[in-house]
Amino acid sequence: MACAEFSFHVPSLEELAGVMQKGLKDNFADVQVSVVDCPDLTKEPFTFPVKGICGKTRIAEVGGVPYLLPLVNQKKVYDLNKVAKEIKLPGAFILGAGAGPFQTLGFNSEVIEVKAKRRTGPLNFVTCMRQTLEKHYGNKPVGMGGTFIIQKGKVKSHIMPAEFSSCPLNSDEEVNKWLHFYEMKAPLVCLPVFVSRDPGFDLRLEHTHFFSHHGEGGHYHYDTTPDIVEYLGYFLPAEFLYRIDQPKKSHSIGRD
């Protein structure tokens, strides 16, 4: 597989915390961003297989939406063990949405803790953080990964149908008619990956999937209960981007 490597701009955790505190205040009533020791993520509600998300952080964007739309290419199946070797971290802990996993060594160290309550603006939690970083760092791309919990409230989400579409999906409207949309309730454990600006690799700039211990899961769009929603997240900047098997022909469909 073709693989390109890119070095992200990596600000200090303290600097990032200050930038995100300021940006999130424009979209949430109550915001607290600080640098803390990573909590033990093997415990509930996370139940991850490693204690932390620190150590040699990378974002791997593998394939892309053009392999799904307009028609699926079912030959595009990836072995995550091979992906881990491709990014020079064999045996890495991999988390994130399917289209953009975030790799670490699973160490327990310092992370950025983000608490945000009561959404007052139009942006979802992830988009607000991503656009805040883009506004501040401009043409210096910053990549982020980690996890957050939606502690209170409900979210709009989607899951894919059991079967791929047999008809070409040539617009976002057609994609949305094919997907199944639901409102799902907290608590939800989310796995986001986001990049402030695409450095020229046809990236999906943000992508978040979530699971729960009450049987609900899917792709996160935004909360539907802004007056009561509460987010608690732990994030780290990625050192490198690895763009693997980038589609030669692309489009802008299905990137929400």
Could you characterize the architecture of this molecule?
With 256 residues, this protein is an alpha+beta fold. It has one domain: 60s Ribosomal Protein L30, Chain: A. It is 15% helix and 36% strand. It contains four helices and 14 strands. It has helices at 13-24, 80-86, 125-137, 172-178, and strands at 3-7, 28-37, 58-62, 93-95, 102-104, 110-119, 143-152, 154-159, 180-185, 188-195, 206-211, 218-223, 230-237, 240-244. Strand 11 and strand 12 (218-223) form a beta hairpin. The chain is globular and about 45 Å long. The model has no long low-confidence stretch (mean pLDDT 95). It is found in: Nucleus. This is DUF1907 domain-containing protein. Its main location: nucleus. Residues 19-244 form the DUF1907 domain.
Topology summary:
Blueprint: E1 3-7, H1 13-24, E2 28-37, E3 58-62, H2 80-86, E4 93-95, E5 102-104, E6 110-119, H3 125-137, E7 143-152, E8 154-159, H4 172-178, E9 180-185, E10 188-195, E11 206-211, E12 218-223, E13 230-237, E14 240-244
Parallel strand pairs: 3-14
Antiparallel strand pairs: 1-14, 2-6, 3-5, 4-5, 6-13, 7-10, 7-13, 8-9, 8-12, 10-11, 11-12
Subcellular location: Nucleus
Pfam families: DUF1907 (PF08925)
Protein name: DUF1907 domain-containing protein
Poorly predicted runs = none
Strands ordered across the widest β-sheet: 2-6-13-7-10-11-12-8-9
The radius of gyration is 17 Å
Task: Report the CATH topology name.
Answer: 60s Ribosomal Protein L30, Chain: A
The SSE order reads EHEEHEEEHEEHEEEEEE
Helix content: 10-25%
CATH 2nd-level architecture: 2-Layer Sandwich
CATH superfamily: Hypothetical protein, similar to alpha- acetolactate decarboxylase, domain 2
Structural class call reads alpha+beta
Mean pLDDT: 95
| DSSP E strands, number | 14
Number of helices: 4
CATH class: Alpha Beta
Largest beta-sheet details: 9 strands, antiparallel
